[in-house]
Design goal:
heterotrimer, A alpha/beta, B alpha/beta, C mainly alpha, A: 5 strands
């Protein structure tokens, strides 16, 4: 898994690629929670376009991010979900809980 | 799109057994078993008690070592690999035992979390969320602080499935999922297996002697008798089979009487041979 | 001929049993001293909770029994010493026999009854309910997960319990000393300490560590060799107790003889 951050005006976009699994999800969790809890960025956006696969630990990390965003009053947005990722979220009944956009324009729109 | 219908996925063998023989001491239990389990299918291993089906399952998860033959799983012959390599494979498989085999000294949540705590560097809050997701998947949301002794038989099995799912396995094994459960609870466990199959496209291998449950959950079935594969095929093929042993098993015909007088006499008067271990 | 082959059979069985115990001990030692440096951390939490059960749980009964043993020792030695008007030697007699022999031995017997049997029953039950198999299919080594913390707990707690047992035994002797032999508690304890050499205490503690290893190995081995069926758990638990007591006495004999010849030479 690769993760890189783009800092825009009052928002941060994380571009993630590869597999989010048991061994890599801590690398996602850490910057995510830092962005939300410490920097309190008002909007955190996850670009999942290049994510091929996400397992339960990845889902759990996203849930933690969502919870942290609620705690500090930020927005937490996912976009670019492929079928596999969307299916995994659907199974965990999380599709409706996350704010999911179709593309980056929607996600960064005010 | 339902991926279990995908022929490309169907054609890929997840597990291949080649002439597998397993013995306890000098008694051979399995006499050369060969078949393939395809990716994403649910294969039911059927057989009466003493047929060797449980031994087969134990061998597939690495609890017994075969005396000869090959088991190809994820590109490795697990009949001939080191314990360390086997442990790596075990992290990718989940097993639900007959009685659940939950650790009595740990809560349900700790049971589910155990493989994650042992094998991953995930933080506690992450593990906590995963175990709740898993418990929710098996219909036990909110039970994480119960002790196994406080659960009913059916709930124990569900909790055991949640634990087997903890590491997101590619293959899930079930040993007699409906044993010891009343018919309604047992149907619930069958339902759970069907849900998992639909949801995760997981390869599922179930050992059972329950015909109704087998026909409900199976894509394909293998009938094992006296340590040999008698028949293998889809549920339709099995129903239509004319093979005498298959018919006997499916129509629940009791074992034929020992008819040969000489054999019978020998059986009665034979010197007692203690089973050697 | 029949007899010879039977004896031969029992000897090889016995050696095979000791071999199995040794293998278990070596595996546990590997997980204690080597594996932590290869990224498999020790389960300190499990070891500590195990130590609480083995150690703290045994304190009341151990205190009571060793106090009585000390008192009995005082009475028994006074029976002879009285004839020579040497009742003041009761203190040293009790102190030496407690620290060198009875303290470690009585502690071991109590720990066998409380914990050795519990190890066999716990692991045996887990075997019967397929929990050990479940550990293995989860790629968790039962020796690492279950057995090693027990070894750690025992190796640490047995010397501690033994020290406490020695102290309680001396107190028991003091009860007699104060009542019958013109001691005060302070002079009695002082007389006991004067009679003791460091090597008395250390040899007792060294033995207690060996006892701890023996008890754990037997208890866990019996548990792990439990077959199918609930009645097997009972059988192996009983065996764990009997075999442990026998092996503890054997270890005791070997070490006592060793110390004897070492100090002589």
């Amino acid at each position: 898994m690769q993760i890189s951050a783009r800092h825009l005006d009052k928002m941060t976009v994380f571009d993630i690629s590869g597999d989010i699994d048991l061994s890599t999800s801590p690398e996602l969790r850490k910057p995510l929670l830092r962005e939300l809890r410490e920097l309190r960025t008002p909007r955190v956006i996850l670009n999942l376009k290049a994510v091929r696969y996400i397992d339960s630990s990845g889902v759990a990390s996203l849930v933690e991010g969502l919870k942290a965003s609620r705690d500090v009053g930020s927005r937490f947005i996912l976009f670019g979900l492929n079928t596999t990722v969307r299916e995994v979220l659907q199974l965990s009944k999380l599709v409706r809980i996350f704010e999911i956009c179709e593309n980056e324009e929607q996600a960064v729109a005010p | 799109m339902d991926q279990t219908e995908n022929p490309a996925l169907q054609s890929e063998a997840m597990i291949s057994l080649r002439n597998l023989r397993v013995s306890y001491g000098d008694r051979e239990i399995l006499h050369g078993i060969s078949f393939d389990v395809m990716r994403g299918e649910t294969l039911v291993i059927l057989g009466g008690s003493g047929s060797g089906k449980s031994t087969l399952l134990r061998t597939l998860v690495g609890l017994e070592r075969p005396s000869s033959g090959e088991i190809w799983l994820k590109g490795k012959n697990i009949a001939a690999i080191s314990n360390e390599e086997m442990d790596e494979i075990r992290k990718k498989i989940g097993m639900s035992f007959q009685g659940g085999a939950l650790f009595g000294s740990m809560s349900v949540g700790e049971n589910v979390a155990l493989p994650l705590r042992e094998h991953t560097k995930l933080e506690n809050p992450t593990i906590e969320i995963i175990l709740r997701l898993k418990l929710d998947q098996v219909g036990l949301a909110g039970f994480e602080n119960y002790m196994p002794s406080q659960l009913s038989g059916g709930m124990k099995k569900r909790a055991a499935v949640a634990r087997a799912l903890a590491m997101d396995p590619e293959i899930l094994f079930f040993d007699e999922p409906s044993a010891g459960l009343d018919p309604i609870i047992a149907a619930g466990v069958d339902e759970l297996i069907l849900d998992l199959k639909k949801a995760f496209h997981m390869t599922i291998i179930v050992v059972t002697h329950e015909l109704a449950s087998a026909f409900l959950i199976a894509d394909r079935m293998v009938l094992i008798d006296k340590g040999n594969v008698v028949a293998i095929g889809t549920t339709q093929e099995m129903r239509a089979s004319t093979h005498p042993r298959v018919r006997q098993f499916l129509d629940r015909v009791p074992e034929p009487e020992v008819s040969q007088e000489l054999d019978y006499l020998q059986m009665l008067t034979e010197e007692n041979r203690r089973p050697s271990r | 001929m029949e007899l010879a082959s039977q004896i031969g059979g029992s000897v090889t069985d016995g050696l095979a049993y000791l071999g199995a115990l040794a293998r278990l001990g070596v595996r546990a030692a590997y997980f204690t001293f080597v594996a932590p440096f290869q990224g498999k951390p020790l389960r300190m939490q499990r070891a500590v909770s195990q130590a609480m059960q083995v150690g703290v749980g045994a304190l009341p009964i151990l205190s009571l029994i060793t106090f009585f043993i000390g008192l009995i020792l005082a009475l028994q030695s006074a029976y002879e010493l009285r004839k020579f008007g040497a009742l003041t030697f009761v203190a040293s007699a009790v102190a030496i026999s407690m620290t060198r022999e009875l303290g470690p031995l009585i502690t071991a017997v109590i720990v066998i009854g409380r914990s050795g049997s519990a190890f066999a029953a716990e692991i045996g039950t887990m075997k019967v309910t397929e929990e050990i198999d479940a550990l293995e299919t989860m790629a968790i080594d039962p020796i690492h997960f279950l057995v090693t913390p027990k070894f750690l707990a025992m190796v640490v707690m047995l010397p501690c319990l033994t020290t406490w047992a020695n102290f309680m035994g001396i107190l028991g002797g003091a009860l007699f000393g104060v009542a019958q032999a013109d001691f005060t508690v302070v002079t009695y304890v002082k007389a006991s300490l004067d009679a003791l050499f460091l090597r008395d205490i250390l040899s007792g503690l060294a033995k207690s560590i060996m006892f701890g290893i023996t008890i754990t190995a037997v208890g866990c081995h019996e548990g792990l060799s439990t077959g199918a069926g609930a009645e097997q758990v009972g059988r192996h638990t009983t065996r764990a107790v009997v075999v442990s007591i026998f092996l503890v006495i054997l270890v005791d004999l070997v070490f006592t003889a060793l110390f004897f010849f070492l100090s002589a030479g």
